[in-house]
Amino acid sequence: MQVFVTGATGFVGHEVIRQLLSAGHRPVCLVRPGSEEKLPSASVEVQSGDVTRPETLRGALNGCEAVIHLVGIIREYPRQDVTFDRLHIEATTNMVAAAQAQEVPRFIQMSSNGAEADGHTAYYRTKWQAEQHLKASSLHWTIFRPSIMYGKEDNFCTMLAGMVRVLPAVPVFGDGSYRLAPVAVEDVAASIVASLDRDDACGRTFHCCGDKVVTFDELLDLIGAILHRRKVVKVHQPIWLVKPLLARLQALPGCPLTVDQLQMLLDGNVCDPRDWQRFFDLSCRSLEEGLRQALGR
After folding, report:
1. Does the residue 24 lie in any domain?
2. Which residues face 3 on adjacent strands?
3. What is the pLDDT of residues 26-51, one digit of tens each?
């Protein structure tokens, strides 16, 4: 099957492309000019364009039988016009319109666990709005809502591992008791690719979480054990102090976190993965096994 893929140069995109090729599909990757070298393989067709510029999508999907739309951001940079409205809502609107105009019937969307109309953050609200636009279309859609994904190229668990490796004490926001269910990017990608051949996946939304729920502190301890750190010392920072500080600093280029990102972390990120796992007959790796693989241990 010839499959049009957006976001192919990103963390999830790399794994989806790898599994598409392994399954015998023919990916056509939408890439902004100059970003071709970021693709994970030379064995793909490259289509120059931009999801935020609908004129670049005209004719780009010709010959494709499905779209896998992976574009998304976790943080806004308004000065560069990188916003949730633009990259979540407008990008999805443009891709849905292009798929309909070019008669590509199948549309697979990567959203996020926690996407809700009244979500606590703009990230969740715009993810939900993008879902609604797709659902209102004439396309045969499937939506995946993953929790925090980890893997060799992620910027969450590998970032935490870097802190555990080099810092004598790891800063933790709040009491570290917020609950997470990290999921391996390989497992999410496997279900996305498998859904291409499942007509019964159309019109369904799948919540993708790992089997093990851990607190943030427990995740740090697990990473420490994998890295053979006898004890991970944690310094818990009071939220009443951290939030106002982040509000002042988040616009600076070097600030590692925004207030919204902090809120999403404090809200936790868990779900019941059984429907997703049963539907795709997934044998998901354990969190420890997956982290060992991601961290090269």
Report:
1. yes
2. 27, 66
3. 999 999 888 888 888 778 999 999 99
Q: DSSP letters of 3-51? A: EEEESTTSHHHHHHHHHHHHTT-EEEEEE-TT-GGGSS-SSSEEEE--T
The overall pTM is greater than 0.90: yes
Instruction: Estimate to the nearest angstrom the gap between the alpha carbon of 55 and the chain centroid.
Output: 26
Note the pLDDT tens digit of each residue in 148-197. Answer: 999 998 989 999 999 999 999 999 999 999 999 999 999 999 999 999 99
CATH code for position 63: 3.40.50.720
Q: Which domain holds residue 205?
A: 2-147+184-209+271-285
Report if residue 18 sits inside a domain.
Answer: yes
Average pLDDT, the chain: 95
Residue (of 46, 52, 15, 50) closest to 29 by Cα position? 46
d(CA 72, CA 77): 13
Distance CA 66, CA 95 (A): 11
263 in a domain, yes or no?
no
In single-letter form, the type of residue at position 164 comes to V
- What crossing angle do the helices spanning 185-194 and 11-22 adopt, rounded to 10°? 50
Confidence at residue 35, expressed as pLDDT on a 0 to 100 scale: 84
Is pLDDT larger for residue 90 or for residue 41? 90
Q: Is residue 135 part of a domain?
A: yes
**Whose CA is closest to 91, among 6, 155, 175, 182?**
6
How many independent structural domains does the chain possess? 1
pLDDT at 93 over 80: yes
CA–CA separation, 242 vs 221, rounded Å?
23
CA distance 40 to 151: 15
